[in-house]
Amino acid sequence: MEWLSRNKIWVGTAALVLIGAYAFYAVNSNIAVSMFSYAWFLAVPLVLGAMVGVIGERSGVVNIGIEGQMLVGAFAGFFAAAATQSIVVGVIVGALSGIAMGAFLAFSTVVGQLDQIIAGVVINIVATGITSFYFESGKTIPRGLPNFDVPLLSKIPLIGPVFFSDGPIALFALIIVFVLHFLLFKTRWGLRTRAVGEYPSAADTAGINVIALRLFNVTAAGILAGLAGTYLSMEATSTFERGMSSGRGFLALAILIFGAWRPMRALAAALFFGFMQSLASQLQASDVVNIPQQFINLLPYVLTLVVLAAAAGRVRAPGAVGQPFVKGD
């Protein structure tokens, strides 16, 4: 009951959206499933990217490099799978590449105390350069990651085919939101993470190793960024293109802010972004409105500006985010 009272606006909005979605489904089930499936397809990398940001910023470290981490994950996963003709190897390498980029950010900012914004920008620039320089056309993988139906859940009208008849990374993205919410607010790790993100000096006084926890969290969060990239190249398209992250890392940061650094709210925000783009595409495909494709591509970035303007002054970031910690200060 306490959780419902704190989140009554979000719960009420979710209930209204669900009622509207099922009303639409009753009118035209085929278009409804198609639109919402495409919305989730667009939202998956945003959800994973936002979770990277949640872990980092709740620990006190800003991660501007999510975009670069995604791009490297897409590149490493696809070309590892192409070289070995194994999608399993591709997924593992994609995740490990995300860890490597996360470790660079963690050690350069937490230990080396490099400015966190600059470190993130460096990751993005290096990722763009490496993936462009070593790109080879003509490479193929045996197949994309397969879709499968979750028993019972996939049979639920509308929700089942949208969320539970998907590939493994998309299903993982849905699960990790609820897992991370539980870990952040119901476990000792979560309490310590929030402590070092809000009051690192007090956490240090209480015996928490602030530097070690930040190093672990930022590095481990890289797995999610690597999987987001792997999703783009191996589950969504089965190919790699230069710059295929296409600003999704920056959109994930906007979603993180709009979601007030909470996993479940960030999921809702990502679904909103995905649905708005899906709606624009459906309106164009149905000849309801004549929207140039360039404006549809522009829509996520316009929404980002609107969301950030709406969130300004309404949400509060963790108190110590972006601030280096020096023991003894």
From TrEMBL:
Its main location: membrane. The keyword Membrane applies. Keywords: Cell membrane, Membrane, Transmembrane, Transmembrane helix. It is a multi-pass membrane protein. GO terms for cellular component: plasma membrane. It holds the Pfam family BPD_transp_2. The chain crosses the membrane at residues 9-27, 33-54, 61-81, 87-110, 117-135, 167-185, 250-275, 295-313. GO terms for molecular function: transmembrane transporter activity. It is found in: Cell membrane. This is ABC transporter permease.
